[in-house]
Amino acid sequence: KENMRDTGTLNGGPFSPGRVIVTGAASGIGRATAALLLLEGWKVVAIDRDALALEQLRLEQGKATGLAVDAVDITHTSEIERIVSGLPDDVPLRGLVCCAAKGDNTPFLELSLSSLRSVFDVNVMATFSLCQAAAQRMAKDGKGGSIVNITSVSGLRANAGRSRSEERRVGKEC
Question: Is the per-residue pLDDT at 4 higher than 60?
Answer without folding.
Answer: no
